[in-house]
Design goal:
Structural class: mainly alpha
Largest sheet: none
Number of strands: 0
CATH topology of the largest domain: MetI-like fold
């Protein structure tokens, strides 16, 4: 296992290096002058010259590439044009908000999807299987922006049960006498609509994957052997079939958590949730290139390392897998 992890980490480094190179080349191949794209026209002449010198945009292309790799290795991504502060500070400020929302949504969706998928496969052809499968297909095929706007209109505008936008109420967070649990409750209250949107979009895919994998697992010889031993149906389902059927689900959940680091740009934009996805959309639309580039690199890094974690989890979930 140690040898496998070292090998996979070496592959991650190589792939990450290639991604860095591709981003560097694509930026230089884009139409127009890269200096003009990188330098905010609202900056003063002295500030613009300092930024150009810091980024090495007047140096030969190979020198620029070396500076680019060095800055990445040191965690220096430049300054955001819009915020006027280091890009790393902007990302670390928004990242916890994205992790809170999307990790919660993926975990809840996985718990419900796996449980219902297990029941659907065990009840193949019965009403439970039909009901769960139809619900999964309907939610899985919904158009996310349409669903988000529908929930905003119904629960936020018509019923006025939940806030429509934002992550917190100013009167709660600006009051120094507000207790921590009141602030936590306020964040959870604002999180309900985006959380419901993401839950409905994700749980169907986990249910369908678990159902399909479970049906294949139930055909294995060790399931027949377990029945021949006289084990209860519940024990066969939960202790023998379900753990082995979890492998495809682990991949799906692991990659969902990895890709959720980009914040689901559409979800965060619709609900004005202050996370990485919303910042990425803002950075691209307002030509904040340092911030946009850092967001893309963050997404790529998290996805690469998540693949390694998923591969390692495979060996622990299925004893038959050895690296």
């Amino acid at each position: 296992m140690k040898r496998f992890i070292i090998k996979r980490m070496a592959q991650v480094v190589v792939v990450l290096f290639l991604i860095l190179t591709v981003l560097f080349v694509l930026f230089r191949l884009a139409p127009g002058d890269p200096v003009e794209r990188m330098v905010d026209p609202n900056l003063t002449l002295e500030e613009a010259e300092h930024l150009v010198e810091q980024l090495g945009l007047k140096e030969p292309i190979l020198t620029q590439y070396g500076i680019y790799l060095k800055n990445f290795a040191m965690g220096h991504f430049g300054h955001s044009f819009h915020y006027g502060q280091p890009v790393a500070e902007v990302i670390w400020e928004k990242l916890p908000n994205t992790i809170l929302l999307f990790t919660t949504a993926v975990i809840l969706a996985a718990l419900v999807g796996v449980s219902w998928g297990k029941i659907a496969a065990w009840s193949k052809g019965k009403w439970k299987d039909l009901a769960f499968t139809v619900a999964a297909l309907v939610t899985h095929t919904l158009f996310l922006p349409w669903l988000a706007l529908l929930l905003v209109w119904f629960f936020g505008y018509r019923l006025e049960w939940f806030p429509i936008t934002g992550m917190m109420s100013e009167e709660v967070w600006l009051d120094p006498d507000t207790a921590w649990w009141q602030k936590a409750w306020d964040v959870g209250y604002h999180m309900m609509l985006p959380l419901l949107t993401l839950f409905l979009i994700h749980f169907g895919s986990y249910l369908l994957v678990m159902r399909s994998s479970m049906l294949d697992t139930l055909k294995e010889d060790y399931i027949v052997t377990a029945r021949a031993k006289g084990l209860s149906e519940k024990a066969i389902r939960n202790r023998h079939a379900a753990p082995n059927a979890m492998l495809p689900v682990v991949t799906s959940v692991g990659l969902s958590l990895a890709f959720s680091i980009n914040g689901g740009a559409l979800t965060e934009t619709v609900f004005s949730w202050p996370g990485i996805g919303r910042e990425l959309v803002f950075a691209v639309s307002h030509n904040d290139y340092p911030l946009a580039q850092a967001c893309f690199l963050l997404i790529a890094t998290v996805v690469l390392f998540s693949n390694v974690v998923v591969d390692v989890l495979y060996a622990y979930l299925d004893p038959r897998i050895r690296y």
